């Protein structure tokens, strides 16, 4: 009963940690064997008998009876006179099993046992949590804001598990208050020491894909397939969808009447502009659709270099490029092609790379970033618009415009 009372005092951890009794007993055996090794030098000659139903365990030490003056290892051997105190008819060479009471280990050993048990249970919990969240990678998860730091928001779920939402995994417009619920996908989990570090993301394309699954029944049921998602978090996204049932309009089903279905997703993503596009295996048609809302006149492909030239009427060019070059950049990511814009009816134009002797490459790259890769594509824009859309100073832009204008005046 002494052992039982002590184990019951240990078992309080079971209720706090939701650990089953059988697992607790296995951890207890491991803890006790470590204690026996420390006290006796070895646990090889000890039997630990566990009864998980009663929550009890017994520890028995097995020793060989030797003559009184021949004891060399007190842990493995017992003198004949000591053995006969247990049973009066023991003889030299026989095996003696003697129960070890936990109380005999001493108060300090019991305190150490308790501390070791706490450590082992935490280790078990952390391994369980790691496995649980490893299986949840790529899935939507909801947790409550617990603490807001400069570089991350710390969330807690209903079980008290800590989840990290780093600053670079937050949508730029995200603003959190303590106590509010936050949705994102579990992007990763790793063990830091023995503690699992769970990372949530709201910027991953997979988050938008999972929101489609959650909010649109046809996607959840598999009637509509999300083929690919590309995003500039908080700004713009493009989602290619397809259906194997000709009776279903995948774009219409995802958007809903007057945008009713997609409105909740847009709101969740901080009013991110979402273009839903019909997927097709025809690359020219897919590129034309990806450049929506612009109307494309012609698409010419080079499949070896994955390069596409699209011909547009002048009034469609700004639509194709989009604010900050977002539209053309996402269209390229969605289709896998590098897209160059050509203006219909403009016969004479010069690639910006032709001016590399006069214009530094990083400036050319900055114009290309917003979809401007020819002289006339730059000249067709107002100076103020170029200043807003690029990271270039007004003085630099004026100098570039002067150089480009001289080309056509010549």
From TrEMBL:
Domain Transcription factor NusA N-terminal span(s) in chain numbering: 6-125
Subcellular location: Cytoplasm
Any one GO molecular function term: RNA binding
InterPro entries: KH_dom-like_a/b, KH_NusA_2nd, KH_sf_prok-type, NA-bd_OB-fold, NusA_N_sf, TF_NusA, TF_NusA_bacterial, TF_NusA_KH_1st
One cellular component (GO) term of this entry: cytosol
BP GO annotations: DNA-templated transcription termination; transcription antitermination
Subcellular location, principal: cytoplasm
Pfam families per the UniProt record, alphabetical: KH_NusA_1st (PF13184), KH_NusA_2nd (PF26594), NusA_N (PF08529)
Keywords: Cytoplasm, Elongation factor, Protein biosynthesis, RNA-binding, Transcription, Transcription antitermination, Transcription regulation, Transcription termination
Domain (NusA-like second KH) ranges: 283-344
Domain of life: Bacteria
Residue ranges annotated for the Transcription factor NusA first KH domain, each copy included: 202-279
Subunit relationships: Monomer. Binds directly to the core enzyme of the DNA-dependent RNA polymerase and to nascent RNA.
Protein role: Participates in both transcription termination and antitermination.
PANTHER family cross-referenced by the UniProt entry: TRANSCRIPTION TERMINATION FACTOR NUSA (PTHR22648), TRANSCRIPTION TERMINATION_ANTITERMINATION PROTEIN NUSA (PTHR22648:SF0)
Family listed: Belongs to the NusA family.
Name the UniProt record assigns to this protein: Transcription termination/antitermination protein NusA
Lineage of producing organism: Bacteria, Pseudomonadati, Bacteroidota, Flavobacteriia, Flavobacteriales
């Amino acid at each position: 009963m002494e052992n039982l009372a002590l184990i019951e005092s240990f078992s309080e951890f079971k209720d706090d940690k939701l650990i089953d009794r059988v697992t607790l007993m296995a951890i207890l055996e491991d803890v006790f064997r470590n204690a026996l090794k420390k006290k006796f030098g070895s646990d090889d000659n000890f039997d630990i008998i566990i009864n998980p139903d009663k929550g009890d365990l017994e520890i028995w030490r097995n020793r060989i009876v030797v003559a009184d003056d021949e004891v060399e290892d007190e842990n493995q051997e017992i003198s004949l006179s000591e053995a006969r105190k247990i049973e009066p008819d023991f003889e030299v060479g026989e095996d003696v099993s003697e129960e070890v009471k936990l109380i005999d280990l001493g108060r300090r050993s019991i305190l150490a046992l308790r501390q070791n048990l706490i450590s082992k249970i935490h280790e078990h919990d952390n391994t369980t949590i790691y496995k649980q969240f490893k299986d949840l990678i790529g899935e939507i998860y909801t947790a409550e804001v617990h603490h807001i730091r400069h570089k991350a928001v710390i969330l807690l779920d209903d079980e008290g598990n800590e989840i990290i939402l780093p600053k670079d995994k937050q949508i730029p417009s995200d603003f959190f208050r303590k106590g509010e619920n936050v949705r994102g996908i579990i992007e990763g989990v790793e063990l830091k020491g023995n503690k699992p570090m769970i990372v949530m993301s709201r910027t991953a394309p997979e988050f938008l894909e999972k929101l489609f699954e959650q909010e649109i029944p046809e996607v959840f049921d598999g009637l509509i397939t999300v083929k690919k998602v590309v995003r500039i978090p908080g700004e713009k996204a493009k989602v290619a969808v397809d259906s194997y049932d000709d009776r279903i309009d995948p774009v219409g089903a995802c958007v809903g009447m007057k945008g009713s279905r997609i409105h909740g997703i847009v709101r969740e993503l901080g009013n991110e502009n979402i273009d839903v596009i019909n997927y097709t295996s025809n690359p020219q048609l897919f590129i034309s659709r990806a450049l929506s809302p612009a109307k494309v006149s012609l698409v010419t492909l080079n499949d070896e270099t994955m390069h596409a030239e699209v011909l547009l009427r002048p009034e469609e060019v700004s639509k194709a490029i989009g604010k900050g070059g977002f539209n053309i950049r996402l269209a390229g990511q969605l289709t896998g092609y590098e897209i160059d814009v050509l203006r219909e009816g403009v016969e004479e134009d010069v690639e910006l790379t032709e001016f590399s002797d006069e214009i530094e490459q990083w400036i050319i790259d900055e114009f290309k970033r917003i979809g401007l890769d020819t002289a006339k594509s730059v000249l067709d824009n107002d100076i103020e618009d170029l200043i807003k859309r690029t990271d270039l100073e007004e003085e630099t832009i004026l100098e570039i415009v002067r150089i480009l204008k001289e080309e056509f005046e010549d």
